[in-house]
Amino acid sequence: MKKIFIILLVVCIPAVRLMAQKSSLGIFDAQTEVGNAKKGMCKYDAQSQEYIITGSGTNIWATHDEFQFLYKKMSGDFMLTTNAAFVGKGVEEHRKWGWMVRRSLDTSSPHVNAVVHGDGLTSLQFRRTAGAITEEQKSTITHADVVRLERKGNRYYMSVAKNGDLFTIDSLDLDLGNDVYVGLFVCSHNNAVAETAVFHNVRITIPAPSTLVPYRQYLGSQLEIMDVASATSKIIFQSPRSIQAPNYMPDGNHLIYNSDGLIYKFDLKTLTPSVLNTGSITGNNNDHVISFDGKMLGISSNNKEDNASKVYTLPLSGGEPKQITPTGPSYLHGWSADGKYLVFVGQRNGDYDIYKVPSTGGEEVNLTNSKGLDDGCEYSRDGKYIYFNSVRNGLMQIYRMKPDGSNVEQLTNDALNNWFAHPSPDGKWIVFISFGQDVSPSDHPFYKHVYIRLMPADGGTPKVIAYLYGGQGTMNTPCWAPDSKKIAFISNSNLLSEVYPVEKK
Known about the structure:
Family: Belongs to the TolB family.
Largest sheet: 7 strands, antiparallel
Number of strands: 41
Signal peptide: 1-20
Shape: elongated
Keywords: Signal
CATH superfamily of the largest domain: TolB, C-terminal domain
Radius of gyration: 24 Å
Domain Prolow-density lipoprotein receptor-related protein 1-like beta-propeller: 285-421
Protein name: DUF5050 domain-containing protein
CATH class of the largest domain: Mainly Beta
Oligomer: single chain
CATH topology of the largest domain: Neuraminidase
């Protein structure tokens, strides 16, 4: 559900031009050996979007450093995130991989790095001034698989986790100046030896400025496809506009998403979007659902008369929509397996609850009536359950119920705010997005640190499969591929790299 809306008057649809720049170094600018490290190698695999770095060097410690560095010059605030692992057993227990931020490329430069050692030690290392002794903050986590290094002003945050776990965070204050060298590194801890690490899910993100006005100003969008089993994601398309809530079409070859009040059909083979005709309804938000038989599309759109979202249906091929809900706000989230019903979140009598309505229109049936927000209602493919999220017990948590609203079960009960449970087509899993407690339980704003988590459909221990910057519009509606092997979602950044296809107006 999207609680605040801006009506966009679309005067014309600009032609879309795609640009993708081939680069042997991917999103980075250059590579180098720092200090007296022997010549190494950095390679970008455009197909897998992986980085392979081979480096030597005696150490990153004491008064000077030696290592292989794949870097980009940056300024301001940023977030650096990657999954990585060494190739093979290795020689030295203190071989290292990680993220580095340096004032210069000089061997004794002030710097900070978030590093994982060969023996598992995971730490935040830093040198405050040129030639000073390196200091260290050790994490309570060892053998981290996921590392994020974030800068906010002069404060640096290291977030680390083993695959599937939540982040553990350490931080420090350090002035490296505004302009810095940012990148991935490998050090073998023995200059006679070369070690190799492979990095994937590599992201350099520029976050929203503090002056950004929500729902009026937007960051760029990155459309990502994740292989769920490996938790490996690829950026397949970017836009400087806000694109939101990708749904897989039943053919598995196309997606549906919304942007600027319009619905787009995205071709996964050509990586190009085209406007899907929704007739006179052009205030579409990010609550849209495709029927299980692939024939119909349900949309939610602001009504020009009262600026309240209403539910409509139309053929998936496009056409003039039929209005289903006479009153609003109404936000569509699910379509029953037999195609006979829609489930939506509606504000009636001052509260947001879950309702169902015949897909051809008719009387609304109230399914929940607990105090506070109920949202994100979605049918399982077998029609046995409706999954939803609710603040009825404090934080936002995931629940499910029978299609008539009976037998409510709570599936998550943790310290995060969990939204938008999407059951996989094979019925085995749900994925959902989790916000921290820096966000009100009843809100799901843009541009936050969020997790995408995977859990058995009957409940169990959630596992993190994505660590990203996003929120509103990341995965509000059904996002699974028909084969239950992939999901589509949106991440956000003020930095879009032309190594991936970029939409140009």
